[in-house]
Amino acid sequence: MRPATTAIHGGFDYDPETGATAVPIYQTASYAYASAAELAEVFHGRAPGHVYSRISNPTTHALERRLAQMEDGIGAIATASGMGAISALMLGLLRAGDELLTTRGLFGGTVSLFHNILTRFGIIIKTLPPDADAFARAVTPETRVIFAETITNPTMDVLDLEALSHIAREHNILLVVDATVTTPVLGPIKRLGADVVVHSTTKFINGHGTAIGGAIVDTGSYRWAGGRFEDLATLAERAGQMAFLARLRNVVYRDLGACPAPQNSFLMLQGLETLPVRMPIHCENARRLAEFLDGCASVKWVNYPGLADSPYRPTVYRLYNGCAGALLTFGLADGADPFACLDALRLARRMTNLGDARTLALHPASTIFAEYDARDRTEMGVTDDMIRVSVGIEDFEDIREDFEQAIAKATE
Ligand code: PLP
Predict the structure, then answer these.
(1) pLDDT band at 239; cut points 50, 70, 90
(2) 238 & 351 share domain
(3) What number does the ligand 1 atom closest to the CA of 353 have?
(4) Sheet holding 299-303, edge to edge
(5) Residue at 272 is within a domain
(6) Alpha-carbon Rg of the chain, whole angstroms?
(7) Which CATH number belongs to the domain containing residue 329 in this structure?
(8) In a domain, 72, yes or no
(9) How many Å lie between the centroid of ligand 1 and the Cα of residue 200?
(10) Measured between alpha carbons, how far is 108 from 327 in angstroms, rounded to an integer?
C-alpha cells in the first residue's frame, strides 16, 4: 500500500464479528480467559492476546501497527505522550556512564528530561552544534545514542540525518530521531538512516488538538544482536530483531506505565487517516506565511527552513519531499512588544501546542522555556522577541490578514 492508503487501511481491516470499519475502542483495563491455563499462556507471551491495558490493548495495537507500517518499521509502541515515548526509550536503553549526543534547539521538555532527569542517573548529555562534523568529533567509546529532531522545535535547524547516520553506523551507535514535526508523511526517515523514530502524536498525527500521545518505532535498521547495549545484545541472540521492542513492552513500558487511553489511540488513528491530505496544506500555508512575513517592513527576522535565504533550504527540501514543515518563528522590529502582537491575533490561537488544524502562536521564552535563565535560553536559540507559529490549514488569506493586522497593531 502507498502512504495515503496505509494511513487509512494500515493495521486494521474491519472487525470480523460486527463488521465495524472504524477501529473499536476497547475501553477495558483487563481481559478475561476461559481457563487459568489460557491466561497463564497469554501472560507469559506463549499465546497471542492481551492481559492488561498498561501492557497492550487492541485499539492501541491497531495504532501501533499502522504507525509501524507508515514508518516502514518492524513494530511500534504507542505511549501516553511524546515525553512518555522519549523517557521510556532513554530509561530503557541507557545506564550510568553512557553518553547521549544531541543538538541545541530541541523541544524544551526533551531538554529538561535530558538535563534534569537523565543526568541524575549518571547519563552524560553532550549538546552539540547542528553539524554532523561536530558529532563525528564528539563520539567516544561511551557514546550509545545520537538523538536528533528532524526540524528542531523552535530553532528550525535541519540536521543532515544521512550524515549523522553514517557516523552512527561507523561507531555502532543508535540513531534516534524525533520526527514529530515532519511526520511519516514528509517521508519515513528510515530511508535517511534513523534506527528508532519517536513521535509526539499529539501534534500533526492527531491533527485536531483532541488528545495527548506518543510513539516509538523500531525501523529495524540497528542490529541489536551485535549492538552496544549489552542486555539487548544478549536478548537479541535468542529473540532476534524484535528484542528491543519486546524488552521495551514487557519490561520498560510495563514498569513505567506511560500507556495511552484506548479512546486516545482511537483519536490518533482517526487523525492519521487524513494526515497525508493535511500535511501538504500545513507546509504550503507555512511557506506562504514565512514569505509574507519576510516581506513585512515591521518584521525584523523570520526563521523558516524553506525561505530562500535559509542555509537549510537545500537540505530540508531534499530530505522532506520538497516540504519545509509547518512551524516558523519571527521577531518584530526593535522595540515592538511580542505580547501585543500575540494579543491582537483574532484567528490564530494563543496556545502551547503545534500541529493543530488551527493556526497557533506563542511566545516560547515566557512559556516552554521560562524555566531557563536568559543565558541558557540564548544558548538554546530562544530569543525574547521570538514568536512561534504553527501554521494551520485554514484559508491562507485569512491567516495572512490576521498576522498583517496583529503586526500593524503591535508596531503602530
Ligand atoms: N517532541 C517534540 C518535537 C515536541 O514538539 C513535543 C511537544 O511539543 C514533544 C516531543 C513532547 O510531546 P508531548 O507533548 O506529546 O508529550
Answers:
(1) confident
(2) no
(3) 8
(4) 299-303, 327-332, 387-390, 360-362, 349-350
(5) no
(6) 22
(7) 3.90.1150.10
(8) yes
(9) 5
(10) 15
Output the CA 392–ligand 1 centroid distance in Å: 17
**Ligand 1, CB within 6 Å, residue ranges:** 81-83, 107, 109-110, 149, 153, 178, 180-181, 200, 202, 212, 214
Structural domain that includes position 364: 277-411
- 42 Cα to the center of ligand 1, angstroms: 34
230 and 299 within one domain: no
Q: Residue 217 corresponds to which amino acid?
A: V
- pLDDT tens, 358-369? 999 999 999 999
Give residue-wise pLDDT tens across range 26-81. 999 999 999 999 999 999 989 999 999 999 999 999 999 999 999 999 999 999 99
- Residue 262's alpha-carbon distances to 80, 237, 273, in angstroms, are 10, 34, 17
pLDDT band for 379, please (50, 70, 90 cuts). Answer: confident
Average pLDDT, stretch 96-124? 95
The rounded Å distance from CA 21 to ligand 1 centre is 30
Check whether residue 295 and residue 152 sit in a common domain: no
292 and 240 in a common domain: no
Q: How far is the CA of 283 from the centre of ligand 1 (A)?
A: 19
pTM, to two decimals: 0.96
Atom of ligand 1 nearest to the CA of 354: 8
Q: How many domains does the chain have?
A: 2
Which runs of E-coded beta strand occur in 116-195? Answer: 124-128, 143-149, 174-178
239 plus 315 within the same structural domain: no
Give residue-wise pLDDT tens across range 241-277: 999 999 999 888 899 999 999 999 999 999 999 999 9
For ligand 1, mutation pick of 200, 206, 389 (most atoms within 8 Å of CB): 200
